[in-house]
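Technical note accompanying the year-one report. For the benefit of new consortium partners, we illustrate the data format agreed upon in the data management plan: each record pairs a sequence with a structure-token string. No post-processing was applied to the example shown here.
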Amino acid sequence: MAFLVKFWGTRGSIPTPSHSTRRFGGNTPCVEVKVDDTLIICDGGSGLRELGVDLGQRDGGAPVHGHFFFSHAHWDHIQGFPFFMPVYSPRNTFTVYGTEEEDDRFFRLLSGQMSSEYFPVAFSDLGAKVEPASLEKQGSEIGGVLVRAFPQTHPGGSFAYSFESGGKKVVYATDHEYDLDLLNREASLENPDLVRVLGPDFIEFIRGADLLISDSQYLDEEYPSRVGWGHPRATTAVDIAVQAGVKQLALFHHDPMHSDAVVLHKEKLCRERLAVLGGSTVVFAAREGMALRLDH
């Protein structure tokens, strides 16, 4: 068994197709997590369209059963769903999960964005079976994968998810403004070199993750003018990963104004901070098409 993780969209806020974003990609968030035959899809940004094309070509076009987990329903995280071709085939089944009992809001919001005011094809016209479900409070086992959710700090709210199987753990945590939750928030803004300390609840949620896919949108100098916008300093993600003993940190949700050169600079700054902290976490900037295998 192995965890297979592939990035189909790594950009935040709005798609940014451009020569300056070719390396890391311009599609909005979508990450595939595959454990044996269990297909998990994290968010449905514009990268979901590319995943759909790929799924249609796998295994000779065999029927697809996928499990959707949405961090939240801001447009950049759901806009790819109407262009996800597998939902138009009656051979396929998709389950859209809420984070608590009888929670079907993500299912309803996907349907709502396909009303005639926004899109020419109605949700009711989809050929595939698309059904709501919900996670249990302590987590649910789905296809041999233990899935848990954690509420995050973001305008309107958002959720992180952890996926565990065979002793491996992957955490998807985007659109989380860690900097608002720091125990030393004000001091760390005045002195960015200060180690940033997050409370124990989220640290325990991500503790020992083999891979943490983390919102890392802003450079240190950008953040003070964007406090409350729902995204952290990339370097804060490094501090948190070290604090939690995370093995690999994928910098994610790249700012739409950041070219490939800026993302590379962000990656460099994060690695420099890691060295100062003395951490052993492997830090890299996620890019579209990147695939990781986490062997059990």
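Partners are asked to follow this layout when depositing records. The chain has a mean pLDDT of 96.
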